[in-house]
Amino acid sequence: MNSSYSLILAAGLLGGFVYTTPSYGADVKLVTKIKVAFLGIGVGKMNSTISVADSQYSISGLVKTSGMVTVVSKTKATFASAGKISGKRLIPHGHNMKYKSNKKRGSLRLSFAGGNVTKTSAVPAIKYKAGSVPVDGSHMKSVLDPVSALLFPVEASGVGNGRSVCNRTLPVFDGKARMNLVFSYKSKAVRKAKGFKGMTFTCSVRYQPVAGIRPHKKNIKFMKANRDMSVTVARVGDSNLYALFGFYVRTSKGVASGSAARFALQ
Predict the structure, then answer these.
(1) Under the phi-then-psi rule, with left for phi > 0, alpha for psi from -120 to 50, and beta for the rest, what region is 212?
(2) What's the pLDDT tens digit per position in 106-163?
(3) Whole-number Å distance between alpha carbons of 15 and 18
(4) Contact, 74 vs 63, CB < 8 A?
(5) Strand stretches in the chain, DSSP E
(6) Of 237, 226, 238, whose CA–CA distance to 264 is shortest?
(7) What is the rounded distance in angstroms from the CA atom of residue 101 to the CA atom of residue 96?
(8) CA 61, CA 97: separation in Å to the nearest integer?
(9) What's the whole-number average pLDDT of the chain?
């Protein structure tokens, strides 16, 4: 796993972090800009627009890295996800990602029906190496794509409660691998960015590989044992929505992190 991919994965898995409530009153639109660093050096940005209206959600965004650090390639990736919020459940409709890293280009498209993956399309085609844990139909049922994975309901009574916001396990299929992301409450602090000043919650994150990976690989073992990952989220205005304010991920090559420069309603 190279460091550019790690940054995209961090942005994709940790970057559309939004919560909504079972009561969908006013429409909400949030625009964020996250400054991305690797080994403490600014290497890029992640911009996103998140909309919730009539129980439908959509997220679109862009990740760019500059290649200023030797182990980070010059990369550009765009992503978009959409679906429906039903009670406490997210039902994704689709997920798309396109990327260019140096001379390499690629894309991924996931289609869903009832929360189950019905079609996967990737360029270049996804291939599994010898020793990979097989992915079967059961691994693609009741799952979330990497971005929708971080949109989920919080009871109205849970607003302002870090444990209610953070504590949960999310099943994710990223087009190749099936994994669980386990979140738990860590801390709270007052932070500010353009358009925001207020309380934030930091949630620790654990990675649990399920299928589509080679368990003996160093990077898989490293990430599975990794206890140095977290996301920080903030409330969106006076709503029951929380969105990504920052992230911290220790990779095998060093630390990737992000912090909000902008966090504003439109």
Answers:
(1) left
(2) 999 999 999 999 999 999 999 999 999 999 999 999 999 998 887 656 888 888 999 9
(3) 9
(4) no
(5) 18-20, 28-38, 41-53, 56-65, 75-86, 89-101, 104-113, 116-123, 151-153, 168-173, 178-193, 196-211, 229-235, 242-251, 254-265
(6) 237
(7) 17
(8) 10
(9) 86
Start-end of H helices in 167-241: 218-225
Q: Is the pLDDT of residue 8 over 90?
A: no
Tokens describing residue 46: 């992640």
**What is the average pLDDT across 233-245?**
82
Which residue, chain included where needed, has tokens 């050096």? 41
C-alpha to C-alpha distance for 147 and 69, rounded to whole angstroms: 26
Strands 168-173 and 28-38 turn out to be: unpaired
Q: Quick check: 83 and 64 in contact, CB under 8 A?
A: no
Spatial CA neighbour of 128 closest among 77, 178, 170: 178
- What digits encode the pLDDT tens for the residues 158-207? 889 999 889 989 899 999 999 999 999 999 999 999 999 999 999 999 99
Q: Going by DSSP bridges, is the β-strand pair 104-113/196-211 parallel, antiparallel, or unpaired?
A: unpaired
Give yes or no for a contact between 44 and 65, defined as CB atoms under 8 angstroms apart.
yes
Residue 247 CA to its chain's centroid (Å): 10
- Tokens for 84, please give them: 């429906």
Better-predicted residue by pLDDT, 171 or 238: 171
Residue 56 reports pLDDT greater than 70: yes
Residue 20 CA to residue 115 CA, distance in Å, equals: 18
- C-alpha distances (whole Å) from 91 to each of 6, 82, 143, 184, 191 are 26, 9, 9, 23, 32
Structure tokens, 123: 């360029």
Q: Which amino acid is at 112?
A: F
- Tell me the three state secondary structure of residue 194: strand
